[in-house]
Write a structure and sequence with these properties.
about 80 residues, alpha+beta
């Protein structure tokens, strides 16, 4: 029998690290093969591949950058 523990590169806290170490020690003491693998999470962060040109929207408002507070929140225009 073999036990494999897959751990992401970002381990939440030291308590989990100590627990995994204890589990590994117990299995080694009992003669069971134990392996701890570090791997990256299986998902990609969509913010890493953000293409602003692909999601940009043309509002047709020429002074939107300067007066975005006016258009979004109703504040007084700057110009």
């Amino acid at each position: 029998m073999q036990l494999t523990i897959n751990v992401s590169e970002i381990v939440p806290n030291e308590k989990i690290v100590r627990l995994i170490t204890k589990i590994e020690e117990i299995f080694v003491k009992e003669g069971v093969s134990c392996e701890v693998r570090k791997k990256m999470p299986a998902y990609d962060d969509p913010w890493d591949n953000l293409d602003i040109d692909e999601i940009a929207v043309d509002t047709g408002i020429k002074d939107f950058a300067e007066n975005h507070d006016h258009y979004l929140y109703g504040a007084e225009k700057r110009s």
